[in-house]
Design brief:
Blueprint: H1 3-16, E1 24-27, E2 30-33, H2 38-51, E3 55-58, E4 75-78, E5 85-89, E6 94-98, H3 103-111, E7 115-116, H4 129-134, H5 143-146, E8 153-159, E9 165-167, H6 189-193, E10 202-209, E11 211-212, E12 216-224, H7 227-242, E13 249-256, H8 257-263, E14 277-285, H9 287-303, E15 307-309, H10 314-318, E16 334-342, H11 346-360, E17 367-370, E18 375-383, H12 390-408, E19 412-413, H13 417-425, H14 430-443
Parallel strand pairs: 2-4, 3-4
Antiparallel strand pairs: 1-2, 5-6, 6-10, 7-11, 8-9, 8-10, 12-14, 12-15, 13-14, 16-18, 16-19, 17-18
Helix pairs in contact: 7-9, 12-13
């Protein structure tokens, strides 16, 4: 037995003294641990901190944003045993959950009591709450109004790399006893962990806002001959919503024609060949508002050259958790390129993606939805072959090249991880990145948490 193998075996043995041995296993040069409580996570991190062993938390493991593989000679914290709803508070309209719960399981539990959350990622059958929070997850469904996971979080329970268990939000005031306010003294510490991709600690629990199930919902598709007309409609929606109108328009998703037809082929019968871009529009809420606001959104679309398909698309909402490859997201392993682009830059961004795809023989199209105003959350993806690991490196090189091109026109990466950190670091204000690294050094002095996510190698 080599020294390296002996070290891994000793690590496994010591971890088995902290957690039931059946939940500790060795895979290659790594140890996989499946904790059940925040206290078990804390025990693992104290050991890792003492031995300077790298740790990577993993939820559903989609791997679209960075590696979810076990770190070499390190520990993979597999969070999926922590999958319970801890409390539904109908007084302050929140739900407290363990970080390993999937969105589908949570929606089922809330739906039984007439509630729901407001973010619905396409990967929701496997995606876990903690993983979605730490990657700053968004959702094509209801994104236009509710944006991303950050707007829905009230508080967290986080385990720091040193093993301390820290509450954020109002439960930090011991007399409060429940989460109902995210921000108070001295700053928004909850926000420190949103989108940090596991670099600052492990999310063990989260408290989110909940909402009553809507009385009604409608979905329509508006087809446009070109991107300028579709963007003009999106601008009109933003102006109307900020002025107090069409407030129930929660989804405004831009999809190239071929992607939507690949998902819902029957729409081809309703769309003339001249239609190249489509907006999927969904309204939900009070029945009267739904009818009025959908009519207004359709009218705004027609005024800008849009053609409305009179179809409620029941499969669109039913497929939100991936029962079909929604809007061309596709199946199989892929690297996602996600960037925030002001509306004024959308035509240039689409041109860059189209040209890049043609250059490399890739079927690439930009799609996405408004995000927090007249800003587009743009997506493209490059697939790779699961049976050929080297193909991921090839796909990653191209994805980085494309992300760099988008940053070059003023776009901002939405998620970074180890995949896009090298591209971003070259373009960060040195003072900003220096500050981030100082925060990392304070919280994780031995650099054990998700190595490579903050400090570029």
């Amino acid at each position: 037995m080599t020294d390296r193998e002996g070290n891994i075996d000793r690590l496994r043995e010591e971890l088995s003294g902290l957690i039931e041995p059946e939940w500790v296993s060795r895979v290659g040069t790594s140890v996989i641990v499946k904790p059940r409580t925040a206290e078990e996570i804390a025990a693992v991190l104290r050991l890792a901190n003492r031995t300077e062993t790298p740790v990577r938390p993993r939820g559903g493991g989609t791997g679209w944003w960075s590696s979810t593989l076990p770190p070499a000679e390190g520990i993979l914290l597999q969070m999926t045993r922590m999958n319970e709803v801890l409390a539904i508070d109908e007084d302050v309209l929140t739900v407290r959950v363990e970080a390993g719960i999937t969105f589908a399981r949570l929606e089922e539990a809330l739906g039984a009591q007439g509630y729901r959350i407001a973010v619905f990622p396409e990967s929701g059958r496997t995606a876990t709450m903690g993983g979605h929070i730490q990657t700053w997850g968004t959702s094509p469904h209801t994104s236009s109004v509710f944006e991303d996971q950050a707007t829905q979080i009230v508080g967290l329970k986080v385990v720091l790399p040193t093993g301390e268990i820290v509450p954020t939000g109002s439960t930090a005031v011991t007399a409060a006893a429940k989460d109902f306010s995210r921000r108070f003294f001295p700053a928004d510490l909850t926000g420190l962990f949103l989108g940090a991709e596991g670099a600052f600690g492990v999310i063990a629990e989260a408290t989110l806002k909940i909402f009553r199930q809507p009385e009604a919902s409608r979905t329509r598709v508006a087809g446009f001959p070109g991107l300028p007309e579709a963007v003009a409609a999106l601008r009109a929606f933003q102006d109307a919503q900020r002025g107090g109108g069409i407030s129930t328009l929660v989804e405004q998703r831009l999809v190239p024609r071929e992607m939507l037809l690949a998902t819902i082929p029957r729409l081809g019968e309703s769309l003339p060949a001249a239609v190249r871009f489509l907006l999927v529009l969904r309204v939900e809420g009070d029945a009267a508002d739904v009818e009025r606001h959908m009519a207004a959104a359709c009218a705004l679309s027609r005024e800008r050259g849009g053609r409305i398909v009179e179809d409620d698309l029941p499969e669109w909402w039913a497929g939100r958790f991936g029962s079909f490859p929604a809007a061309g997201l596709g199946k199989g392993p892929r690297i996602m390129i996600v960037a925030m682009v002001p509306f004024a830059g959308m035509e240039e961004a689409c041109s860059i993606v189209d040209a890049f795809g043609a250059q490399h023989g890739l079927s690439l199209k930009l799609r996405g939805y408004p995000f927090g105003g007249p800003v587009f959350l743009a997506h493209a993806s490059i697939s790779w072959e699961a049976g050929r690991p080297e193909s991921r490196l090839e796909a990653l090189a191209r994805a980085r090249e494309l992300m760099a091109a988008l940053i070059g026109i003023g776009a901002v990466p939405h998620r970074v991880g180890t995949d896009f950190l090298p591209v971003l670091v070259e373009r960060l204000d040195p003072a900003y990145y220096g500050f981030v690294k100082r925060v990392k050094g304070m919280l994780d002095p031995k650099g054990i948490m998700n190595p490579g996510v903050v400090v570029s190698g």
